[in-house]
């Protein structure tokens, strides 16, 4: 799991907990479950009776006369809005490593652009037997790039053989860049085709 | 990737063979057998980034906070509050919580919250079948699309003489194959289809081989 996934999943879990907790709180009070099941809610527990309202008028106006209330509300809303905007924009951008050092130890003054390596990987992979088309992408940071390769296989391909061939392609990529590791994920699809009987 | 010099004193311990990929040295794997998912070949599922639900949630929070902020600021500058805010505040203050609308809303919120929790805690990407890791620890981690696996298996089943039509359903732990047989003995064809699918499943190199069920049915005159 990358950091992006961790962030999204954490925030989704928080949102889910808030919605689930709020919904259950209202439902428990509305269906009068505290009384039916002989539960004793803690003191000052909200929404214990079916006749309660979610935000009573006296709660809503409790602090509205205080001088700090509206600046606080506006600041809180502005912060929430900014965080939501940042979270939304984070979904739209793909992190590419940009310029990558080449060689082991890295040669000064020689850099490889991530898209160049991705194009080379894709071209190399597309030539493997059984591969119809290939797309490659580099993500992550410049000192830890990750490669993703999307392959569409021919109808008569053997995924096991394609995977072994891809292994040597990646080995060659590591040799030509001088890197010790290039973690790679490959997604194999099969091109849609009519039923294909020939061996 | 690390850029420290390698532990060996030789700065280039593995000179690349010019012009030739090193694929003439096959990795030391055992001959293809049925059990490719050994304990050391564990291939975890890929975890989705959950971009779409995250974007939807972010958009909702953004819209709600933006509208509220706008209206609060309007009221602070001497305008009257928007009608939606007055109505919302009024409803929240007057409707008892055993009102059907409030109960419905609370139930929907709870269900949505549960759904978001499931999204946050499960890997997703159910349409991808992890493939067995290669012997090389630096090798690729691969997945095979379920539809693609079904297409390859269908072709394998159709190569069996007598099979006119094959319907393959690939699920994560089970594969259901139904073959329509036009000629030859039904049991023989079923056995051969099972053999062909088992061989093809081996070629798919899945980390966890789904259980295969083959049914054959007579079709035509």
From TrEMBL, chain A:
The chain crosses the membrane at residues 12-31, 68-89. The keyword Transmembrane applies. Keywords: Membrane, Transmembrane, Transmembrane helix. It comes from the Bacteria. This is Alkaline shock response membrane anchor protein AmaP. It comes from Kitasatospora indigofera.
Automatic annotation (TrEMBL), chain B:
Residues 111-217 form the DUF6286 domain. The keyword Coiled coil does not apply. Pfam families: DUF6286. The chain crosses the membrane at residues 52-70, 101-121. Coiled coil: none annotated. Keywords: Membrane, Transmembrane, Transmembrane helix. The lineage of its organism: Bacteria, Bacillati, Actinomycetota, Actinomycetes, Kitasatosporales. InterPro entries: DUF6286. The keyword Nucleus does not apply. Residues 1-41 are annotated as: Disordered. It comes from Kitasatospora indigofera. It comes from the Bacteria. Residues 1-10 have a biased composition (Low complexity). Residues 14-31 have a biased composition (Pro residues). This is DUF6286 domain-containing protein.
């Amino acid at each position: 799991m990358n950091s992006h996934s961790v962030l999204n999943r954490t925030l989704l879990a928080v949102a889910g907990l808030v919605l689930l907790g709020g919904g259950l709180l209202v439902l428990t009070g509305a269906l009068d479950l505290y009384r039916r099941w002989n539960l004793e809610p803690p003191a000052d527990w909200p929404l214990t009776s079916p006749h309660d309202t979610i935000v009573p008028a006296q709660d809503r106006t409790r602090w509205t006369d205080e001088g700090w209330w509206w600046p606080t509300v506006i600041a809180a809303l502005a912060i929430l809005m900014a965080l939501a905007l940042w979270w939304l924009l984070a979904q739209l951008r793909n992190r590419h490593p940009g310029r990558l050092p080449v060689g082991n130890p890295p040669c000064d003054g020689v850099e490889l652009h991530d898209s160049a390596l991705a194009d080379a990987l894709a071209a190399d992979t597309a030539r493997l037997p059984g591969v119809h088309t290939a797309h490659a992408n580099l993500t992550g940071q410049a000192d830890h790039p990750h490669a993703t390769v999307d392959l569409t296989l021919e109808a008569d391909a053997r995924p096991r053989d394609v995977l072994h061939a891809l292994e040597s392609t990646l080995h060659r990529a590591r040799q030509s860049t001088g890197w010790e590791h290039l973690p790679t994920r490959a997604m194999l699809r099969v091109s849609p085709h009519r039923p294909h009987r020939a061996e | 990737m690390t850029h420290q010099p390698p532990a060996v004193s030789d700065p280039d311990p593995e000179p690349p063979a010019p012009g030739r990929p090193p694929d003439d040295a096959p990795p030391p794997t055992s001959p293809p057998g049925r059990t490719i998912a050994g304990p050391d070949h564990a291939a975890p599922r890929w975890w989705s980034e959950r971009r779409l639900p995250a974007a939807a949630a972010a958009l909702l929070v953004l819209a709600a906070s933006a509208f509220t902020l706008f209206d609060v600021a309007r009221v602070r500058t001497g305008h009257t509050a928007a009608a939606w805010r007055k109505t919302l505040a009024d409803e929240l203050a007057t409707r008892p919580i055993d009102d059907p609308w409030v109960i419905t809303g609370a139930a929907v919120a709870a269900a949505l919250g549960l759904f978001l929790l499931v999204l946050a805690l499960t890997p997703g990407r159910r349409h991808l079948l992890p493939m067995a890791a290669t012997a090389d620890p630096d090798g690729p981690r691969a997945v095979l699309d379920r539809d693609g696996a079904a297409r390859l298996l269908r072709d394998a089943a159709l190569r069996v003489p007598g099979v006119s039509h094959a319907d393959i359903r690939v699920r994560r732990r089970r594969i259901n194959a139904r073959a329509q047989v036009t000629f030859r003995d039904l049991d023989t064809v079923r056995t051969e289809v099972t053999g062909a699918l088992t061989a093809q499943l081996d070629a798919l190199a899945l980390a966890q081989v789904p259980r295969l069920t083959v049914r054959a049915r007579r079709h035509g005159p």
